[in-house]
Amino acid sequence: MEKATERQKILLRHLNPIPSSSSSSINHEPSLLSSVNCVAELSPMAAFGDDIVIVAAYRTAICKAKRGGFKDTRPDDLLASVLKAVVERTSLDPSEVGDIVVGTVIAPGSQRAMECRVAAYFAGFPDSVPIRTVNRQCSSGLQAVADIAASIRAGYYDIGIGAGVESMSTDHIPGGGFNSTNPRAQDFPGARDCLLPMGITSENVAERFGVTREEQDMAAVESHKRAAAAIASGKLKDEIVPVATKIVDPETKAEKAIVVSVDDGVRPNSNMADLAKLKTVFKPDGSTTAGNASQISDGAGAVLLMKRSLAMKKGLPILGVFRSFAVTGVDPAVMGVGPAYAIPAAAKLAGLNISDIDLFEINEAFASQYVYCCKKLELDMEKVNVNGGAIAFGHPLGATGARCVATLLNEMKRRGKDCRYGVISMCIGTGMGAAAVFERGDSADYLSNARVANGNGH
Amino acid sequence: MPVFKAPFNGYSVKFSPFYESRLAVATAQNFGILGNGRIHVLELAPGAPGVTESVAYDTADAVYDVCWSESHDSVLVAAIGDGSVKIYDTALPAPSNPVRSFQEHAREVHSVDYNPTRRDSFLTASWDDTVKLWAFDRPASIRTFKEHAYCVYQAVWNPKHGDVFASASGDCTLRIWDVREPGSTMIIPAHDFEILSCDWNKYDDCILATSSVDKTIKVWDVRSYRVPLAVLNGHGYAVRKVKFSPHRRSLIASCSYDMTVCLWDYMVEDALVGLMASTGWDELVYVWQQGMDPRAS
Fold first, then answer.
1. What kind and span of H or E run contains A346?
2. Sorted alphabetically, which PANTHER family does this protein's record hold (chain B) (predicted)?
3. From CA A376, how far away is CA A340, in angstroms rounded?
4. N- or C-end of chain B: fewer Cβ atoms within 10 A?
């Protein structure tokens, strides 16, 4: 790329010569640089000031709904803790944030949006910083990050926070799924299938694509094993923001002040024998159990994004680069296949092959769909959910996307040069899949950013 | 009028010294800034379309110049943007080409010229500020001439004296060299801006023309080099290439960023015979009689 810019400069100097003293060395000309940018577009993966980068990503611990550490924590307190963390830990002036988008799913729309604004005040944001919510079901957290990236690129503002929060202790999915009061939905197979409980879609995937109970239980065991190892090794400390909150004893009603900083859904002793004993929940002769499905949980996450040029000006470390985002629609009856479609789409947008991706965070909504997607895309399981997934941690719906950013980027940073590109993906209830490609933060290298060409010349 | 449409932007076109209906064309993608290159060997034939491609060679980087060998009728030498100099033999099948690739220049090679008198060596001029002298049978360059302070755009042999050549550089000087001497024998600060091209008069071995970013062409006599013999104004932008006609002693052809090909006579004389060929960034190669419009069909 340097070479092309140099050539362009030389040619432009033929047309716009600098009156020379006879020894002219190659000087930098500000007027030439604007025409240099058109050459830059030829290589989308090189490092440029316009890249949208993540300078901070934090999450709360994820706790079991109704029984875990956050069962008595209000969602606005949960959100406030991560919003505060991204701003405090980067020493950013909160008033510089242009917008905050919060992914959140089950709570009534307007009320949750109001709670988010309240949370922003708790976190120390002034009146001038706006906030909104976004709901694309399970992908809301990732969608929030993508929306911020898109807005920064569109020039609406320079700094944004993509966040997610879900308190499934407070808000529950109605048992058996949602009910639509519109009878017309029954006339459209797709519309009718949107109303299916998620567990039924899991059974559909297992049946249609032949994912056995054993495969699902094995995936669950692996998830717990990896998660337990990650917690034990202290890996997750970098991304978790401890939250000081209270917990109320269900019998005595006594309140106790606690600090929650560990994911409490993980069962380190999970094994095949115990899982095999569990009854199937959604279909009598099915394969989806409470043990091989994601847990219902509380949690929040937040990601701070800005342009690379601004991050460098502020001296902020670059944790990751936001490269692409894709969301696709799939058959609602087997909504779990979403990642199998969204991941190739996102990779293509980033100019990559799936084989170029070094690390994956694929939401384990259900082991059936998780196993299917990994098989369909022929992924190396050593690169997927290396620190465990939603079966072990839990799936606080709106927060999952944002918390995956924290987990993925921190793991990519740990892995160093071997790990350049990562993908976060999840299936979405009502039949969609979302995926985003990230690049490791410190991997910008002007010379070696070019991809290897396949023998084109002699 | 024969017209050839190349897929890439044209950089240089040369008639073969052996076959009057054969041409070599150097082309590059994206105006030579980024991408591949291709060398076309064209044949003129009577009837439509007038010019056909007999072979083409793809290169990984832009081809900035091409020249025919004076010793072998099927051999041509190409100057490539990645700093390499490649030799092609059209008599050999395509997979054996290029027969040689010399990678010595540190930057783009902008011109290549074959020695017409000695016929055993050729010069390359590069943006790494050097001119190199080569022979086919040597694996490495014979000499490197390093004096210019900026890109050397062209190095041309004197048509009569096999040891003398001239070089045109972006450091605004024209230098005359003798390969028997250690350094340049003459330094002419010919223009106030970059000199993009130079060529010797084929009939008078002491006269050369230079073309420059200052939009002029100057004609020089090395015996009295302080003042040019003629200054030819008329081009609207930098003059990219200048060539003396082999048919008429005072006829000069030039091409420029102003999208024109101009013919100049710095003395006055009568009409001439002969074909001209030109190629440009519009991806076309024109071959035409002087006095006619090549775009007329």
1. helix A338-349
2. PEROXISOMAL TARGETING SIGNAL 2 RECEPTOR
3. 7
4. C
- Other Cβ atoms closer than 10 A to A345: 17
Q: DSSP letters along A168-194, please?
A: TTTS-PPTT------GGGGGSHHHHHH
Distances (CA, A) of A35 to A40, A93, A121, B62, B238: 9, 35, 44, 20, 19
Counting Cβ atoms within 10 Å, is residue A453 exposed (0-12), middle (13-18) or buried (19+)? Answer: exposed
Structure tokens of A426?
Answer: 């999840």
Buried b (16+ CB within 10 A) or exposed e, B74-94: bbbbbbbbbbbbbbbbbeeee
* Structure token pair of residue A367: 């082991």
All residues at 6 or more sequence positions from A67 whose CB lies less than 8 Å from its CB, including other chains = none
Which among B58, B86, B192 has CB closest to A20?
B192
In this structure, of A136-145, A169-178, A308-317, B123-132, the range with the lowest mean pLDDT score is A169-178
Parallel/antiparallel/unpaired status of strands A99-103 and A131-134 = parallel
Residue A35 is predicted with a pLDDT of: 41
Handedness of CA B195, B196, B202, B205 (dihedral sign): positive
Q: Do A22 and B127 touch (CB under 8 A)?
A: no
Asked if B32's CB is within 8 angstroms of A7's CB, the reply is yes
Amino acid at B104: E
End-to-end Cα distance, chain A: 20
The phi and psi torsions of A333 (rounded to 5 degrees) equal -65, -25
Ordered alpha helix ranges (H), A210-327: 213-232, 272-277, 308-314
pLDDT band at A30 (very low <50, low <70, confident <90, very high): very low
Q: Which helix (H) or strand (E) holds B206?
A: none
Q: How many residues in total does chain B contain?
A: 297
Degrees to nearest 5, angle at CA B37 with B31 and B40: 110
> Which three-class secondary structure state does DSSP give residue A385?
coil
Tell me the Cα Rg of chain B.
Answer: 18
β-bridge pairing A99-103 and A320-329: unpaired
* Rounded Cα distance, B13 and B40, in Å: 9
The residue type at A101:
V
A13 touches chain B (CB under 8 A): yes
Q: What is the reported pTM?
A: 0.59
Phi, psi of B107 (to 5 degrees): -140, -170
Determine the residue of chain A that is closest to B37 in CA distance: A457
Instruction: Please say if A395 is a catalytic residue.
Output: yes
Nearest residue to B111 via CA among B124, B130, B127: B124
**What local confidence, expressed as pLDDT, does residue B290 receive?**
67
CA distance B158 to B242: 15
Read off the tokens for A167. Answer: 């308190």
Buried/exposed code over B169-185 (b: 16+ C-beta within 10 A; e: otherwise): bbbbbbbbbebeeeebe
**Contact: B34, A39; criterion CB under 8 Å:** yes
Residue of A1, A8, A9, A10 to mutate, interface with B, max B Cβ within 10 Å: A10
Look up residue A241 and give its DSSP letter.
Answer: P
pLDDT of A106 over the 80 cut: yes
Q: At what angle do helices A30-40 and A2-15 cross, to 10 degrees?
A: 130
Q: Does A280 touch chain B (CB under 8 A)?
A: no
